């Protein structure tokens, strides 16, 4: 398994450990606690929430708008408090394609870039592939805050071309406050460095609402990647976007001619209605309710399992980052859980942090309670056998 998860796919392109781990196991596990978004909605659940999809059967299945329909791009731009307009948006196939387009449009062989760590390792892997010189800057326990001082020092000492941050952060569930974002943005703009923020968990804050980096700094030298997979519970639409300066969006559009041409017109149609302000409010509310309730459930259960798992309670996102105090070989622990208990969680090794695990907390609360107890019992059993 180690080799499957860590060998190169192509020259200089590492296996994307997290996605490979999930692709290989998620259809087989009975208890799925590996997801990072809230439980997906069905089309009829969307309609029950008031999303009007009546005209969908009349939709002509053309290529549609390769950059995303004007209506969808307008709705997306309004998420950013109208600091930008639809010309600042390109719609992509998931945030995954948005990250790909951002890296390919911005970074070339030999460029120095700073990367927020730990991280969802897609951008990191892509940066390696294009030959960037990567400076990893690590968040630290117990709070996993964005280490602003270190970022500022590296800006001064290494003059990077771009800085890639995932905030709210996957896997730690920490999100930065506005003051930190403002200071980082101010230095980046002053030094002509592009800030690229993966904000796919933006909108699922459990404490204070987080500002997007674009709301903080405007669209100059600042890029926000986001999408509908996590907070909105619609990963099957495969709708994401890049929001940023117009020249970058134009370049990303030209790169997209090579990757997927256009988003699916069916998804574009549904997304345009899902991003009406009323529906946005309801979907964000749904996500927050699910995660808040599950956190309460997990807190209650964990009282009896303090020896098994040490949680870092998230301030955003639909996942729980935790330490396994009795093992540093968490890939082995995760494999045991899968093989012997049919439970799937994500090992810290996929975030370059063995000794930790990421557990999904976005399931419907009724199932979550049952499954979280199963996980705790299984972890205790694995602890006994290792
Ligand atoms: C930080 C981050 N970015 C991007 C993605 C890709 O999401 P999608 O392509 O479904 O929008 C994920 C998925 O887990 C993620 O965690």
UniProtKB/TrEMBL annotation:
It comes from the Archaea. Residues 61-361 form the Aminotransferase class I/classII large domain. Keywords: Aminotransferase, Transferase. Its cofactor is pyridoxal 5'-phosphate. It is an enzyme of class 2 (transferase). One of its GO terms (molecular function) is pyridoxal phosphate binding. Its EC number is 2.6.1.-. InterPro entries: Aminotransferase_I/II_large, NHTrfase_class1_PyrdxlP-BS, PyrdxlP-dep_Trfase, PyrdxlP-dep_Trfase_major, PyrdxlP-dep_Trfase_small. CDD domains: AAT_like (cd00609). Pfam families: Aminotran_1_2. Belongs to the class-I pyridoxal-phosphate-dependent aminotransferase family. PANTHER family: AMINOTRANSFERASE FUNCTION, HYPOTHETICAL (EUROFUNG) (PTHR43510:SF1). This is Aminotransferase. The lineage of its organism: Archaea, Thermoproteota, Thermoprotei, Desulfurococcales, Desulfurococcaceae.
């Amino acid at each position: 398994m180690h080799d499957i998860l860590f060998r190169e796919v192509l020259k200089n392109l590492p296996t994307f450990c997290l996605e490979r781990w999930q692709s290989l196991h998620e259809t087989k596990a009975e208890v799925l606690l590996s997801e990072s978004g809230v439980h997906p909605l069905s089309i009829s659940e969307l309609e029950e929430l008031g999303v009007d999809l009546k005209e969908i059967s009349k939709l002509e299945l053309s290529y549609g708008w390769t950059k995303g329909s004007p209506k969808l791009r307008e709705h997306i731009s309004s998420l950013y408090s109208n600091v930008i307009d639809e010309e600042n948006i390109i719609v992509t196939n998931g945030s995954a394609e948005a990250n790909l387009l951002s890296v390919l449009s911005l970074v070339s062989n030999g460029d120095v870039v700073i990367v927020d760590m730990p991280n969802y390792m897609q951008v990191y892997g892509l940066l390696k592939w294009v030959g960037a010189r990567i400076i990893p800057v690590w968040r630290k326990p117990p709070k996993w805050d964005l280490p602003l001082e270190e970022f500022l020092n590296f800006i001064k000492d290494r003059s990077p071309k771009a800085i890639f941050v995932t905030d709210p952060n996957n896997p730690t569930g920490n999100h930065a406050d506005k003051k930190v974002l403002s200071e980082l943005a101010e230095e980046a703009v002053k030094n002509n460095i592009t800030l690229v923020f993966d904000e796919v968990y933006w909108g699922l804050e459990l404490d204070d609402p987080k500002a997007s980096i674009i709301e903080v700094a405007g669209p100059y030298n600042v890029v926000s990647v986001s999408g509908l997979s996590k907070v909105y519970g619609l990963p099957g639409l495969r709708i994401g976007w890049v929001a940023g300066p117009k020249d970058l969006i134009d370049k990303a559009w030209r790169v997209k001619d090579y990757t997927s041409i256009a988003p699916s017109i069916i998804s574009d149609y549904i997304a345009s209605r899902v991003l009406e302000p009323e529906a946005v409010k309801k979907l964000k509310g749904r996500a927050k309710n699910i995660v808040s309730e599950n956190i309460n459930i997990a807190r209650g259960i964990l009282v009896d399992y303090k020896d098994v798992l040490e949680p870092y309670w998230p301030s955003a996102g639909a996942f729980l980052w935790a330490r396994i105090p009795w093992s540093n070989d968490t890939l082995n622990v995760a494999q045991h859980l899968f093989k012997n208990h049919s439970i799937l969680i994500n090992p810290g090794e996929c975030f370059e942090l063995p000794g930790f695990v990421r557990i999904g907390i976005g399931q419907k609360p009724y199932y979550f309670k049952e499954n979280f107890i199963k996980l705790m019992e299984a972890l205790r059993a694995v602890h006994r056998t290792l």
